[in-house]
Write a structure and sequence with these properties.
- The complex is a heterodimer.
- Chain A has six helices and four strands, in the order βαβαβααβαα.
- By secondary structure, chain A is α/β, with parallel strands linked by helices.
- Chain A has a single domain (5-123), classed as Phosphotransferase system, mannose-type IIA component (Rossmann fold).
- A four-stranded parallel beta sheet of chain A has the order 2-1-3-4, sandwiched between helices.
- In chain A, helix 1 links the parallel strand 1 (5-10) and strand 2 (33-37).
- In chain A, helix 1 packs parallel to helix 5 (99-111), helix 2 (48-57) packs across helix 3 and helix 5 (99-111) packs antiparallel against helix 6 (116-124).
- The longest helix of chain A is centred in the first third of the chain and has 14 residues, at 13-26.
- Chain A starts with a strand and ends with a helix.
- By secondary structure, chain B is an alpha+beta fold.
- Chain B has helices spanning 20-30, 53-57, 76-88; strands spanning 6-11, 36-40, 48-49, 66-72.
- Chain B has a four-stranded antiparallel beta sheet, with helices on one face.
- Chain B is globular and about 35 Å long.
- The N and C termini of chain B lie far apart (33 Å).
- Classes of the chains: A alpha/beta, B alpha+beta.
- Chain A binds chain B through residues 25-28, 104-105, 108-109, 111-113, 122, 125-126, and chain B through 20-21, 24, 27-28, 31-32, 51-54, 57.
Amino acid sequence: MSNVGIVIVSHSPKVAEGAADMVRQMVGEEVPLAWTGGNSAGGLGTDFEAIGAAIERAWSEAGVAILVDLGGAETNSEMAVEALPDSKRARVVICNAPIVEGAVVAATEAAGGAPLQVVRRTAEELSP
Amino acid sequence: MDEIVATASSVLTNEIGLHARPSVKLTKLAKTFASRIEVAASPQGPWVDAKSIVKVMAFKAAKGDTLHFRASGADAEQALAALRALVDEAFHEGAGHG
């Protein structure tokens, strides 16, 4: 049985890496996890190719849940999902949830073997 | 909950109480059992689903508070024994764990 993977996309590589550290330390190693942050020039921003690479790193047959921070992180994540092959696109979701709390909660749910839509719904319980 | 087949309670002895990291441990352990499991800070409730990480994280309990568990299902007794052990062993918190 494979667990849903988690991808963290922030404008800041420090935020993305820090959120990933929290997932690893609080939830554990049993969830595929990748993070990306910053633009290709090394500044704050997001890069859709880097997001695509992160999805590949966290890939799981059970699918991948993406946690994003602000506007561009979401639109670039949507572009990265669009660019995936058909066989994978349907198994990737972007969660409407706060990035840090959402990542920990989604990973906790994924670690229990929950399917992708349950992982997403659990993360989105955090949003008002 | 339909039919309560097991109940248990345990005092929180770990320093930070039921905060984020212990909540993750409790939820992950609860999810390993098939039974329906609920947790409350009082025997009168309100009871929340112990497998819901969002609800357990929102559950405020400090060191010295008593956690009450109830469960229904074939492995209810084993589930509550395991959860009690986790609380009694202070969530295996070591130095440096917050």
